[in-house]
Amino acid sequence: MKLYMHPVSMTSRPVRLFIAENALDVEEQLVDLMTGEHHQEAFTSINPNRLVPVLEDGDLRLTESSSILKYLADKVDSPQYPKDLKQRAKVNEMMDWFNTNFYRDFGYGMTYPQIFPHQKREPGEAQRATIAWGKQRAEQWLQILNDHWLGPDKPYLCGDQITIADYFGISLLTLGEVIRCDFSAYPNVQRWIANMKQLKSWPEVNEALYGLAGALEEQTFEAIG
């Protein structure tokens, strides 16, 4: 199997974390987003979406992070993607919630317009309004994550055991570390973050994320907290 990825990509990180934690035999192929390699024909012929990650396994090609995680978990018969129909449905629900609700506002509404020039809105008022709206919505989603999905007792999103929903969700949430978000107003979220950071592969897989945060440490951001 081959994974086209970039180590700082928020959607590559959950796949790389699952691969590392489960010691899967997957070749990594770096796609240099910083030089625009994902817009060059060599890669667009693989994924016309011009996005990473992409997984190839023989004649199968998958271009969505969530689908890749599900496929890999099934391929190795991982208990982190339960076979029980109802348990699996809850995992799918959490992954969809992060992807279609939380990430849209937290990532593309609040964070990316501040750190990536091509995501900024012009003129200045449009940028400020976009970030303010994204932040307001992200705070609402975080409250729901804290109070409803996690609550005071669950160590992981779907209960007592880690699932691929945790890999997916934590990688999107910790994007906030780049702009120095403070999640202390959401203690159940903080507990879950701490649990996930205990994974043995966390420091290695997320080294590039923290490198990006360090490179931007002099900038001022509109952040949670």
How would you sum up this structure in a few lines?
It contains nine helices and four strands. It is α+β, with helices and mostly antiparallel strands and 225 residues long. 34% of the residues are buried.
Q: What structural class is derived from the secondary structure elements?
A: alpha+beta
Q: Work out the number of β strands.
A: 4
| Percentage of residues in strands | 5-15%
Secondary-structure element string: EHEHEEHHHHHHH
Fraction of residues in H or I helices = 40-55%
SSE map:
Blueprint: E1 2-5, H1 12-21, E2 27-30, H2 41-44, E3 54-57, E4 60-62, H3 65-75, H4 85-115, H5 124-150, H6 164-173, H7 187-196, H8 202-205, H9 207-215
Parallel strand pairs: 1-2
Antiparallel strand pairs: 1-3, 3-4
Helix pairs in contact: 1-3, 1-6, 4-5, 4-6, 5-7
Keywords for this structure?
Glutathione S-transferase Yfyf (Class Pi), Chain A, domain 2, globular, Glutaredoxin, 225 residues, 9 helices, 2 domains
Would you give an account of this structure?
The relative contact order is 0.14. Helices cover 52% and strands 7% of the residues. It has a four-stranded mixed sheet with strand order 2-1-3-4. The model has no long low-confidence stretch (mean pLDDT 96). The protein has nine helices and four strands; from the N terminus they run βαβαββααααααα. It is globular and about 50 Å long. It is α+β, with helices and mostly antiparallel strands and 225 residues long. α1 runs parallel beside α3 (65-75). The chain has helices spanning 12-21, 41-44, 65-75, 85-115, 124-150, 164-173, 187-196, 202-205, 207-215; strands at 2-5, 27-30, 54-57, 60-62. It folds into two domains: 2-75, 3-Layer(aba) Sandwich (Glutaredoxin); 85-215, Glutathione S-transferase Yfyf (Class Pi), Chain A, domain 2.
